Amino acid sequence: MIKQSPDIVDHLISLNPKFEKLKTPMVKVMAKVATIKMIAERGDFDVDDLIGKIDVFINKNKK
Q: One Pfam family for this entry, by name (predicted)?
């Protein structure tokens, strides 16, 4: 997801400061194994809610 839409990182951080870790070099390692479910849990989001927020962000930026 980050490879396809690198600006998603700033959006995720705006949703929850816990996602600030996505700006560290470790993200390259974690991006290979992390799932949306894992990201949602770390950010205290319901999976469907987080997917919805990501979907809105990506579709808004396609225009």
A: DUF1858
